[in-house]
Each structure stands twice: as C-alpha cells, then as structure tokens.
Amino acid sequence: MPVLRAVLFDLDGVLTPTAEIHMRAWERLFAPYCTAHGLAPYTAADYFASIDGKPRYDGVATFLVSRGVELPRGEASDAPGEGTVCALGNRKDEIVNRMFAEEGIAPYPGSVRFLDDVTRAGAAVAVVSSSRNTPAVLAAAGLADRFAVVVDGNVAAREHIAGKPAPDTYLRAAELLGVPAAEAVVVEDALSGVQAGAAGGFGLVLGVDRGVGAAALHAHGADVVVTDLGDLDATVLDRPRVATDAAAAAPTEGGDA
C-alpha cells in the first residue's frame, strides 16, 4: 500500500489551463480600471503577487491594496461594477464565464495521465479550488465524474471555511476522503496553494510551475516542482515530505530549481 493514500488537486493551472483564461480575465478587468483611475498599470506580476490561488473577492481586495485603493467589501449579491470589492469580483466572474463559453476548456494531457496513474494505484482523489466555477469547469473538461469530493469556493462559503493560503479547504477535502493530512498529497501551481499545503502538515506538496517560478514555489512550501504532472507517476505516493526535503533544495523534475 502506498505511504500516501490521497491526492488533492487544485483545478486552475493544475488540471485545466483555466488559469490562463483567468489571468486574461483579470487583465481585462484591471487594465482598464487602472487606466481610468490613474493607477500604475496592471501586469502579469500582479496576478501572481495578489490574485493567484485566492478566493475571487480576496484577490480583488489584495490587488486594490497594492494600488492604495480602499473600497467597501460589499455583498456577493452586488451587481457587476466598480463600487465595491464584490462588484468588481462579480464583473470579473462575468468576464471569465463569457470566455469559458467562447473558448472551451480542455484538461492538461499530462495531468490526466498523472490522475489516471495515481487512481489506478488506489489513491483517493479530490479537487480543492477557490473558484466558484469549479463544477462548470470540471464538466466542460470531462472530469466531473472523476472526483467524488470537490471542495471549492461554493463549499468554502457555505461551510465558512477559510480560503488559501490557509490550509482549511485542503484539510476539509482530506477529512471527506477519510485520509489524514500526513497521508495526502497537495498538488498546486499557486504560491498561496503551496503555502496551504505546507501549513496543513500534508505528506507531500507538489508544485506545478505554470509561470510563477520553481524557486518561488519551493520557497513557499513545495517539496517537489515540475512543469508538467505527466513527468510524474504513482511512485510519488511513496515519497512523503520527510524523504523529499533534500530534493526541495536540488534541481527538480521541471529543470529550473
């Protein structure tokens, strides 16, 4: 039996390239906002520093703070607009859902191979995502039937669970699978996500470098970093964190430590 009995996958940027769509949606939201309000231009670095991996409204608030802007939080029911943090977040949701409909979604082939391999090896699997769009994305990507446990932004709001970088959503997924955190793997591409995995005492934190950088992922808590999950197989389930501390300081499978 493998040492690690469950694999907890982030969605955007790990299973599906929706992170790329989200990045462009945030740019479509904040680039004109910054121009209209005389703020420093929005860049891709802002996405990784302020938004990536966080619940949508928290991402809005963090970015605004980085520009010295304070808006009232508002309510989730606020109409898309600019008057509150929630209104801006709802405008972003409107933008990204239009993009999903227009562009479609396909999972990363390497991630599907890795999912197949760990599932065949007997690992329980779950999706843990800050996104409230998770059910729609999983369905569009043909992955909905692969995960009996999904802890997303909807579940977090309903159960009052703190979002990433707190480990609570990952801990909840492990609980629902009936597996201790120490026997579960967290798979993340966001700095806030690997922080959550490290803070939760999980058996292994796998970082997937989709642009944030291997060094940054390691620095925030990833034990192993790859550029494609297809570079790994089920043998990773026999590599708990205690066995990979040395690997975290060495060049990784992705090639750029």
Description:
Its cofactor is Mg(2+). Belongs to the HAD-like hydrolase superfamily. CbbY/CbbZ/Gph/YieH family. The protein has helices at 18-36, 44-51, 56-66, 85-103, 109-120, 134-140, 153-159, 168-177, 191-199, 214-219, 245-248; strands at 6-9, 124-128, 149-151, 184-188, 204-208, 224-226. It is of the alpha/beta class and 257 residues long. The protein folds into 2 domains: 6-17 and 106-248, Rossmann fold, CATH 3.40.50; 19-103, DNA polymerase, domain 1, CATH 1.10.150. It has a 6-stranded parallel beta sheet. Strand 5 (204-208), helix 10 (214-219) and strand 6 (224-226) form a beta-alpha-beta unit. It is globular and about 55 Å long. 48% of the residues are buried.
Helix and strand topology:
Blueprint (H helix, E strand, L loop, with lengths): L5 E4 L8 H19 L7 H8 L4 H11 L18 H19 L5 H12 L3 E5 L5 H7 L8 E3 L1 H7 L8 H10 L6 E5 L2 H9 L4 E5 L5 H6 L4 E3 L18 H4 L9
Parallel strand pairs: 1-2, 1-4, 2-3, 4-5, 5-6
Helix pairs in contact: 1-4, 2-3, 3-4
Produce a short descriptive summary.
By secondary structure, this protein is of the alpha/beta class. It has two domains: 6-17 and 106-248, Rossmann fold (3-Layer(aba) Sandwich), CATH 3.40.50.1000; 19-103, DNA polymerase, domain 1 (Orthogonal Bundle), CATH 1.10.150. It is 44% helix and 10% strand.
Total number of helical segments? 11
The dominant shape is globular
Secondary-structure element order, as H and E?
Answer: EHHHHHEHEHHEHEHEH
Structural class: alpha/beta
- The N- and C-terminal alpha carbons lie at a distance of 31 Å
Report helical residue fraction: 40-55%
Radius of gyration, rounded? 18 Å
Number of domains: 2
**Proportion in β-strands:** 5-15%
CATH level 1 name of the largest domain: Alpha Beta
CATH architecture classification name of the largest domain:
3-Layer(aba) Sandwich
Number of strands: 6
* Quaternary structure classification: single chain
CATH superfamily of the largest domain: HAD superfamily/HAD-like
CATH level-3 fold name of the largest domain: Rossmann fold
Strand order of the largest sheet: 3-2-1-4-5-6
**Biggest sheet features:** 6 strands, parallel
Mean pLDDT: 91
pLDDT < 50 stretches: 243-257
